[in-house]
User: What shape does this take?
Amino acid sequence: MQQAKTQLSVYEHIDFGGGRIETRRCYVESNLGLYNDLSDWPSCQSVIMVEAACRQ
Assistant: This one.
């Protein structure tokens, strides 16, 4: 999965509030030809994944 994530568009946000460091990444895939079954979502234009990590 790590190799696949490096090929996607990504936005990262780091928050230092509340005594902890919170990192969020949002990956976006617009090449829907990679997915076999999106027939339930005919208007879908992209698929996203949100990854979050928290350190104190």
